[in-house]
Amino acid sequence: MSVPGPGVNQPLNRCSLTAAVVQVQGLRYTPAGIPVINLVLEHESVITELDTPRTVKLQIKAVAFGALAEVLARQGLETVCEFHGFLANARNGKGTAFHIQDFSKT
User: Which UniProt keywords apply (predicted)?
Assistant: First the structure.
C-alpha cells in the first residue's frame, strides 16, 4: 500500500475509547531516557448493530510515552478515562497495541 502525497487524503488511524485501567506495569525508561508505561485497558458498552443491541467487552494492550506515561503511572486501577491515540503492532509483534496520546477522566 502506498501513502498518498501532500494534498491527498491521508490514511486515518485515530482511536477514542472509554475504558478502565485494569493492569499497569511499572514505569520504565527507553535507552534514550524516555518514560514508557504499558497498560491493559478494559472497555464495556452496548452498541447497536443491524438494529440489535450488542454488548461489547474487550481488553486491549496500551502504551504511553513521555510525561503522559508518568501521569498514567500515578492513576489507580479501575480508573475510567477517555483515551485518544492510534493503533499499531505490539512491540513483540504479537497483537495490537493502543498508543495513548491523550486522556481525560470521565
Answer: DNA replication, DNA-binding, Primosome
Indicate if the pLDDT at residue 62 is higher than 60: yes
Which run of H or E residues covers position 64?
strand 52-65
Name the residue type at position 16: S
Quote the pTM value.
0.86
> Residue 78 and residue 87: Cα distance in Å, rounded?
22
**pLDDT tens by residue, 11-50:** 899 999 999 999 999 899 999 999 999 999 999 999 999 9
CB neighbour list of residue 80: distance below 8 Å, 6 or more residues apart: 18, 19, 20, 105, 106
Q: Is 95 helix (H, G, I), strand (E, B) or coil?
A: coil
CATH number of 15-105: 2.40.50.140
User: Burial, 101: exposed, middle or buried (Cβ in 10 Å; 0-12, 13-18, 19+)?
Assistant: middle
